[in-house]
Amino acid sequence: MDATSAPSPKHQLPQPRKQPVQARSRALVDAIAEACLRILEKEGEDALTVNRIAEVSGATVGSIYQYFPHKESMIAAVYERILDQESSQLYEMREQLKGLQLQAILRQVFANMIRVELRLRDLSQGFHMRYSTALHLGQWHAPRGSTQEFINTTWLPLLQMHASEVQTDTPELAAYLLGKGLREIIHSAVQDVPELARGDAFLDMLVAMAMSCVQTKTRP
Hints:
Layout: H1 23-42, H2 50-57, H3 61-67, H4 71-96, H5 102-123, H6 125-130, H7 147-153, H8 155-161, H9 171-192, H10 194-197, H11 200-214
Helix pairs in contact: 1-2, 1-4, 5-9, 5-11, 7-9, 8-9, 9-11
């Protein structure tokens, strides 16, 4: 499968047994997913049992299993809804960033990445860790291409738009470090030291690292 026809990240998550077609079945699946979200947020993953989901959603155990074969697929449905929501907000945020200097843009972008990663991690640390590649907000609605393709269509154009603030003679490398390296750092920090990832110092250091990448000349 080539990069243009590869599935989007959401299709790499555990899938439901079948997709709802009629309005009534869609409402049922939405109620189940909303119940899962409420349980995860208020009671934790250990409380996420089929009986508890049935109690909160009003659905029968049989109807839950009709659409969801296992717990992972139920959690995936929650994550899909969150990332759909966050993806829409991301497009709105990008419009608001127009006209800002590069450092200010990077600060807001990284702050949003940290916030989303923490939100996903807090729901289920294990799920967040197992499916980290699929839970990529920037690529959520895009076909799954190569990492380099993603960077060349997002981060590299950003640096090119702010060429007057970029002082490196290897912008492709800088774009890779921003788009791949710092995302991995954010994901790892959220997993390993979430209390530190929530602090201003972490964001300050990320921005400093990013600016170092775009303002460093390579040695002759």
